[in-house]
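Researcher: Checking consistency across runs. Here is Dirigent protein again:
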Amino acid sequence: MASAVRALDDKKLQTTLYIKQTPATDQRAVGTDTIVINWVIKDGPAGNTIGHAEGLTTHANPAQNFWVTIMDLVFESGSLAGSTLKVMGLHGGKINGPGQWSVMGGTGDLTMARGIINYKIIQEDGASRTFEICIFAYYTSKETIPIPGGIGIFP
């Protein structure tokens, strides 16, 4: 029973990161209104690259210029290296103001993550856009997840 209780131990992630979108170099169209994205994640507005936001964005509401984005935040360096967050939500342009995305899962050190990301676009011009993202998520450390059969823990 102790391992079942440990599996529910939550840890909290609260951090601010930056996503840099540069359409000419980090995304490609796969249809009229759908784009494959590989945006850069940085630890500051002009900081070090620590990962990529990989996924799809679809122009769901052209009249309001809103996009539905489904992406994995893949962390490649820093304290979250080897982990991901599964993220989904709407975004528009800087004129649309701040918004919020859902955190619906995670892997690595962020196993079973759930929470929100509050974002605002802090820079936007014809060549690029920078999102400031404030992540508020709870997760269960992978070391506390029992292996099927009840023997051991994940390495």
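Researcher: Does this match what you'd expect to see?
Model: One thing to look at in this run: The domain at 2-144 is CATH 2.40.480.10 (AOC barrel-like).
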